[in-house]
Design a protein that fits this description.
elongated; five-stranded mixed β-sheet; three-stranded antiparallel β-sheet; 28% strand
Amino acid sequence: LLRVGAPALFAAAHIVPVISELVQRHPRIEIELKVSDREVDLVAERLDLAVRIREMRDSTLKAKRLGEIRAVVFGAPSYFARHGRPKHPDELARHECVVRLTDGDAETWPFRVAGRRRSIKVGGRFRSDSTAATNAAVARGAGIGFAPLWLVRDLVDRGEVEIILEEFEVARVPIHAVWLPTKLPLAKVQMFTEALIARLKRERL
């Protein structure tokens, strides 16, 4: 039995396909997936490992880097036709921004300006805690959005949204598998992480 924790949307898009492959290839393996966008306690949830998308701050956990994701600013051609296309992050203050509500400061977006990281205050008339809702609103021209590229890749490929301000993007965010230091990286954990690394290398994150 392998118990895995992961963020909800990332789990559906990337963890579940890996689990499906593993259970088909290995008849004896069982996998439980704990899906949550909060940072779960590995001990309390009895997890063998968890997938976390961020820089590692907790030095008490063992970690293995799995890949990285790119975050982008994007908008619909219809919005840009009506309101213009921002050329600099400072111009976002004059635009409608569709804000995804999270536990952190959702109304500031990170950029790299003149070689330094800057948080830019944004705002708009539509906010939601649903990523699907905010991305759909941006695609319909309600404003400019900010999201991991993998979440909007289909919209970009179909031409429903366009990426902007690429030259101001911050460094990509790492994806880690973490586990307790008291546990050795068992064969089942290693098998899972290797399969996930292989999948993420094939994806355009």
